[in-house]
Amino acid sequence: MLLLVDAGNTRVKWALARDDAALGDWLAQGAALHDGLDAAGAGWIEAGRSETGITRAIVSNVAGPAMRARLAALLGPIDTEWFASSAARAGLVNGYREPERLGCDRFAAAIGARALLPGQALVVATCGTATTIDAIDTDGRFVGGMILPGLALMAGALARNTAQLPQAEPGATPPPLFADNTQDAIVSGCLSAQAGAIERAVTSHGAAACIVSGGAAPFIAPALKLAHRMVDNIVLVGLHAVLLAVTASGGSSGSPVGDKA
Description:
The structure is a single chain. By secondary structure, the chain is an alpha/beta fold. It contains seven helices and twelve strands. The strands form two sheets. The protein has a seven-stranded mixed beta sheet with strand order 6-7-10-9-8-11-12, with helices on both faces. α4 crosses α5. Keywords: ATP-binding, Coenzyme A biosynthesis, Cytoplasm, Kinase, Nucleotide-binding, Potassium, Transferase. Catalyzes the phosphorylation of pantothenate (Pan), the first step in CoA biosynthesis.
């Protein structure tokens, strides 16, 4: 049984898959805020125990050393890879100037996008606490990308740094572009900024295919004026692709890997 963990700035996402499962074919999955991590960990260990037990885990962690320590305590003796960006992995070449400095979540998301749509020019937008928008070329090279404040951070910055603007949150239905009230005007502006950055990336990358993921994706995707594919937990998809590539190669990745627990 494989355990995939994506520890982000706000939430920890996880999934369980059988060793021979197809990409993204998960037995169970979930997410928890950092404060709820212990309960989530108990849940995934119990879910794994109900099958054959978790024999291997892979973790993408951008939440810092304290989060790593908490996860390590939960994982205990499970054989764990702490996924890290490298020059190449699972069919993707890392074109970052210093490959190891690329966020491991961005690298995993790019690997997942490439695995889902091989041989295509791609833009993958992960919309969470921050929004990252990255490009992959047809040869499987991570070209680079952009990072901007996420939807909630944008709205929160206006509320914190202005005297009279409220904290605005998107609703189930997007507001009109030219809103007739302040709440909707803030939401419209923030959604337009997010969608505009994604659309610019896709156009600049030669009308590439577009994958959108992340907690804010359901709000941002309807604002896009281009074809796109919504994928839940693209980072977990990428981590799964990494482990499948290791299995296919007989247990060796053939490239630098993250350190072991």
